[in-house]
């Protein structure tokens, strides 16, 4: 995921000398090997490096890429990881003029970057049966990773998007077949349509992964609770909220 400007996950102030020494062993160096401009605002970025080889990765984990001398970091969800080659790929969503959007717009093939991770972010790998993913533009990569990693598992995705045409280009490019897009409205009327899909999924004993905007997550969690879904069938992660920083 990439977080909209003004609401993402920044690591804060630049670290002192001691902090840099403590952090250094956890930093991985990678090179940008490919960039695919899927459509307006969305870029598929491929990273590769020796430090990315030889460890286990699971869908739902995150990486954090350091940006600039102020040691600001932004968080992304890898959609795949080749541990033999040391290569990973993520779908970045550019919105606004925050550090993540500026980096995503300006990054070029051959650039190097420092990253942390992968680290756990969502407890999704113990879920059994059908999985229903709800989110927005920042959640599409997660939905793809879950569906791609386990072809035998049914993964149904539901995303609220600002531009339905661009959203369709992205999910088509990733080959995501069981995906519904809901055009975002200023009055949030589209959320009623999202909620209306929950009942049939609950009846099919699906588990739920809900990410993206904090307000949408809160509303869907409330409806799932009303429908009697147990907490162990729901995993949530707020990626952003208007005017908020430090989420994650």
UniProtKB/TrEMBL annotation:
Residue ranges annotated for the FAD-binding FR-type domain, each copy included: 25-125
Any one Pfam family match given in the protein's UniProt record, by short name: SIP
InterPro entries cross-referenced by the UniProt entry: FAD-bd_FR_type, FNR_nucleotide-bd, Riboflavin_synthase-like_b-brl, SIP_fam, SIP_rossman_dom
Molecular-function GO terms, alphabetical: oxidoreductase activity
SUPFAM superfamilies: Riboflavin synthase domain-like
PANTHER family: FERRIC REDUCTASE, NADPH-DEPENDENT, NADPH-DEPENDENT FERRIC-CHELATE REDUCTASE
Record-given protein name: FAD-binding FR-type domain-containing protein
Organism (species): Sphingobium lactosutens DS20
Taxonomic classification: Bacteria, Pseudomonadati, Pseudomonadota, Alphaproteobacteria, Sphingomonadales
């Amino acid at each position: 995921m990439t977080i909209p400007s003004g609401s993402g996950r920044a690591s804060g102030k630049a670290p002192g000398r001691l902090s840099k020494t403590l952090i250094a062993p956890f930093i991985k160096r990678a090179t940008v090997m490919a960039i695919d401009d899927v459509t307006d605002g969305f870029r598929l970025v491929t990273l590769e490096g020796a430090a990315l080889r030889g460890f286990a990765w699971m869908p739902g984990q995150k990486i954090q890429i350091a940006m600039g001398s102020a040691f600001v970091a932004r968080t992304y969800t890898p959609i795949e990881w080749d541990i033999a080659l040391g290569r990973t790929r993520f779908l970045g969503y550019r919105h606004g003029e925050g550090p993540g959007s500026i980096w995503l717009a300006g990054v070029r093939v051959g650039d190097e970057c420092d990253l942390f991770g992968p680290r756990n972010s969502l407890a999704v790998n113990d879920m059994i049966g059908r999985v229903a993913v709800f989110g927005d533009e920042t959640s599409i990569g997660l939905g793809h990773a879950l569906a791609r990693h386990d072809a035998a598992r049914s993964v149904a995705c539901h995303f609220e998007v600002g531009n339905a045409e661009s959203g369709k280009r992205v999910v088509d490019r990733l080959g995501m077949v069981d995906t519904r897009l809901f055009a975002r409205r200023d009055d949030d009327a589209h959320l009623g349509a999202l909620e209306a899909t929950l009942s049939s999924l609950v009846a099919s004993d699906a588990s739920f992964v809900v990410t993206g905007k904090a307000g949408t997550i809160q509303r869907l969690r409330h409806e799932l609770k009303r429908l009697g879904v147990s907490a162990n069938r729901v995993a949530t992660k707020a990626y952003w909220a208007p005017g908020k920083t430090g989420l994650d």
